[in-house]
């Protein structure tokens, strides 16, 4: 069950692996190792429980350390006025243990795929432009719903196909780079439109003979062609500044 867990038959025994709510739903109501789970979650570990024959028989703790580059990326985005929200299917304690050191104050933990999707829709309905970064199957609906979906190249194929941008390296600083490049691209497009408009506003009347009544002459086709080429060169040269 997406975002909850998996169940099956192992050697004739009903076994389920997932979060506490999933185990309860599967009929496991006793011996949940709350203390052991809390210990791992406080250290930022993901925890899944294992149930068999109506009781919890163990847990698995996943250590998923925060990449050193993540802190720098988060700091840069926050400094630029970006609102950051950590939306994760992990337990609240695990999510907070990861978010707090990074400086992220908004956390939506225990989020199912549909809840991540609903979060994106709510933010967009508030008039916000939303970028969502994810790498898992559970992130695919939110990646598709966001204005800009950003997938990690090391993520699942479903996530990559749902996103509009894929980072080749699993480095969140790529989000900062992509945002800076996109802003620079839009700025350059506007500059090019301005250059072309002003250039043609001045050159077209001259080519049409507006200077003739004032004692000026007509521009020869050769010079007119050269002038048009110069217009294109100026736009291309301005675009090359993006490099």
Main sheet: strand order: 1-2-3-4
Write down the secondary-structure element order: EEHHEEHEHEHEHEHEHH
What is the residue-averaged pLDDT?
87
**Overall 3D form:** elongated
Compute the number of helices. 9
Low-confidence stretches are none
Describe the sheet with the most strands: 4 strands, antiparallel
How many β-strands, per DSSP? Answer: 9
Helical content, roughly? 40-55%
Terminal residue distance: 46 Å
Summarize the structure.
The chain is an alpha/beta fold and 243 residues long.
Q: Could you explain the architecture of this structure?
A:
This protein has about 240 residues and is α/β, with parallel strands linked by helices. It is about 50% helix and about 20% strand. It contains nine helices and nine strands. It has helices spanning about 20-25, 35-40, 70-80, 90-100, 115-125, 140-145, 155-160, 175-205, 220-240; strands spanning about 5-10, 15-20, 45-50, 55-60, 85, 105-110, 130-135, 150, 165. The strands form three sheets. A four-stranded antiparallel β-sheet has the order 1-2-3-4. The protein is elongated and about 100 Å long. The model has no long low-confidence stretch (mean pLDDT about 85).
